[in-house]
Amino acid sequence: MKDHRITVMFTVNYLGIGGAEQQLLELVRGIDKARFNPLVVSLYPGGALEPEVRQIPGAEIISVNRKGKYDFWVMARMVSLLRQKRVDIIQPFLTPATFFGLLPALINHTKIKIMTERGGFRPESKLGFRLYQKAEDFLAHFDDLIVANSEAGKSYLISRGINPAHIKVIYNGINLERLIPDQTIVTQIRRQLKLPRNGMVVGMTATFSADKDHATFIQGAKIIHQAMPQTRFALLGDGPLRPNIEDSVRESGLEKFVTFFGTQRDIASYLSCYDISCLCADSSEGCSNVILESMALGKPVVATDGGGNSEVVEHANTGLLVPMQDPEAFADAVLTCLRQPDWARDMGRHAREMVLTRFSLARMVSDYEQLYEQAMRLKGRG
After folding, report:
1. SS3 assignment, position 235
2. Bridge pairing between strands 201-205 and 167-169
3. What whole-number distance in Å separates Cα of residue 353 and Cα of residue 359?
4. Are 214 and 327 in contact, with CB atoms under 8 Å apart?
């Protein structure tokens, strides 16, 4: 009997822990399996999220086992999968998975091709990334739709020559079920932070990469500590620049007051330990998961006014926005929250209400389902 479900292939580099990968996991988990047949194809096997994807009933995951950055034979494997699985829609996440998804789809004459943009403007990037992006921008001219997760991402796409008429913004959705803290773990974390009496925690959750700008956080932390010595600082995440940031902490004399927690899946328990949740990212930030997750937990947020952050944070109502790469302004905003805890908690409460209204997981999944079905109707199922 013919399967009348729409087969959607999602290509991704690797199923490690990251904002785009988490959103892909939530989309595949939430999509209606009676109407859609989701297939996740990774360039490289493994990753912390791969077991979770495998456990989703009705979803399939395949790796094309790319052997390295010069392995372009995955193109043939992608074309074969597109034909074998009779894929109706392909939607890649991230570079270079976008290139290795869209070009085979073009060769295969796959019915619907959707490109996604997960961030905002990137002022600098490595040569390999720029080359892949140029190729993806060319392939975008043959796409049916381009989805950005923020207006900042849409503007970035337009600056790259993408037709704005083909761009749709679908904001991230937050899974509230994964935001239930374990109070036993929360107690253990706060003990690990060695909080003094009346001490408060300022935290930042982000990959240790240049675009997240931990340097501004550390410089700001030094100012905050001088003003309020009882404050402790938490850094959650990992990445290539972690040794550099650890060196900066030691050079700043903050090694006794900053705790590195590494990458953690129990995001709710760690965010629950923060009194203030921060993000110092640059203009490449799209729709930040960690800002939304912090808000969903009622935490006041201090974030840089770059990328899509201003679309999520309403200054002085759901959080505070500060200029990028300005440690003094960052420190001043955090100190304002620490010195006025009742006002900060009110911002956190308003932020939670906003997230529940505008950034629900059900809304995001529904937006994608409608997008896929409308695209199929326009192209026809024949």
Report:
1. strand
2. unpaired
3. 10
4. no
**313: how many CB neighbours lie within 10 A of its CB?**
25
pTM exceeds 0.85 for this model: yes
Is residue 311 within 8 Å of residue 149, measured between CB atoms?
Answer: no
pLDDT at residue 2, rounded to an integer: 58
Residues 162 and 300 in one domain: no
- Same domain flag for 207 and 311: yes
Give me the long-range contacts of 134-142 (CB less than 8 A, separation at least 24).
135/99, 135/103, 136/95, 136/98, 136/99, 136/102, 137/161, 137/162, 139/98, 139/99, 139/102, 139/103, 139/106, 139/113, 139/115, 140/102, 140/115, 140/166, 142/102, 142/106, 142/113
Residue 382 — very low, low, confident or very high, per pLDDT cuts 50/70/90? very low
Comparing C-alpha atoms, which of 134, 211, 118, 121 is closest to residue 169? 118
Instruction: Evaluate whether residue 1 is within a structural domain.
Output: no
Residue 327 lies in a domain: yes
Query: Rounded mean pLDDT of 131-135?
Result: 92
Domain count, the chain: 2
pLDDT value, residue 3: 77
Decide: 27 and 368 in contact? Cβ < 8 Å.
Answer: yes
List residues bridging with 60 in a β-sheet. 39
Order across the sheet with 60-63: list the strands. Answer: 60-63, 36-42, 6-12, 89-93, 112-117, 145-148, 167-169
For 164-252, strand residue ranges (E) read 167-169, 201-205, 232-236
Interior angle at CA 360, CA 354 and CA 362, nearest 5: 155
Question: Between β-strands 276-279 and 36-42, what pairing exists: parallel, antiparallel or unpaired?
Answer: unpaired
Range of the domain at 64: 6-173+360-379
* pLDDT tens per residue, range 3-26: 789 999 999 999 999 999 999 999
The rounded distance, in Å, linking the Cα atoms of 191 and 207 is: 24
Q: What are phi and psi of 73, to 5 degrees?
A: -70, -15
Q: What is the CATH number of the domain that holds 133?
A: 3.40.50.2000
Same domain, 211 and 126: no
Q: In the chain, what percentage of residues exceed pLDDT 90?
A: 92
pLDDT given at position 123: 62
Q: How many CB atoms are closer than 10 A to CB 190?
A: 16
Judged against a pLDDT cut of 70, whether residue 143 lies above it is answered with yes
247: pLDDT strictly greater than 80: yes
Cβ contact 11:98 at 8 Å: yes
